[in-house]
Amino acid sequence: MKVLVAEDDLNIREGLCDLLEQEGYHCIEAEDGVQALRLWQSERPELVLLDIMMPGQDGYSVCRQIRQQDQQLPVIFITAKSEEIDQVVGLELGADDYIKKPFGTREVIARIRAVTRRTLQQAGGSSAGGVLELGELQLFPDQLRARRGDQLIDLSLRDVRILQLMHRHRGRVVSRDQLFDEGWGRDYMPSSRTLDQTISQLRKRIETDPRQPQIIKTVHGIGYRFDG
After folding, report:
1. What's the pLDDT band for 190 if we cut at 50, 70, 90?
2. Domain spanning 132-225, CATH architecture
3. Which end of the chain is less packed: N or C, by CB atoms within 10 Å?
4. What pTM was estimated for this model as a whole?
5. Where are the domains of the chain?
6. Radius of gyration over alpha carbons of the chain, in Å?
């Protein structure tokens, strides 16, 4: 999923992009309102994060122009303001949510996942593929969640992509290159350590016993396999 992050503060912008990319999103960056509009028109992102106070054009103006052409695109405002009137104006313009500065990692991830869930569900889950069974685990791609027994497990967009790939290739080995392409994109080259850490963290969340995984089994020297 492509995300436009429009924020004039370099540190905040890069921090948001780092968080989003760890979740499995592809970020494009804008440092002012004029650039944000240009990138929205040329790149057509699926989610927009807009700082309210930007040079060139502020976030309200950018959102207003986006809404004139697209009523469905999810827009999240980034704001340091707390006055109620600002939130009312933003909601009237069609903002889906707010991220208030200073913000924490968990808050950002929770809000991004919530908007992503709504987007996937509004699309009817067509890109998610419905409920998938992986052993005792039920995967709900359009909810970014899985269930094992009574336990509900929150997942990142990247986690879901990896599990969908394992399910599609059940009984066959999924190579590390396939996982890189599915989880990070063909234009991104993560290190082997990044993949190993991602798989390790995912196993901790979805496997009954991460030391003896049944969903993502290691095939040494090649990749991973889900036997189904």
Report:
1. low
2. Orthogonal Bundle (1.10)
3. C
4. 0.83
5. 2-122, 132-225
6. 19
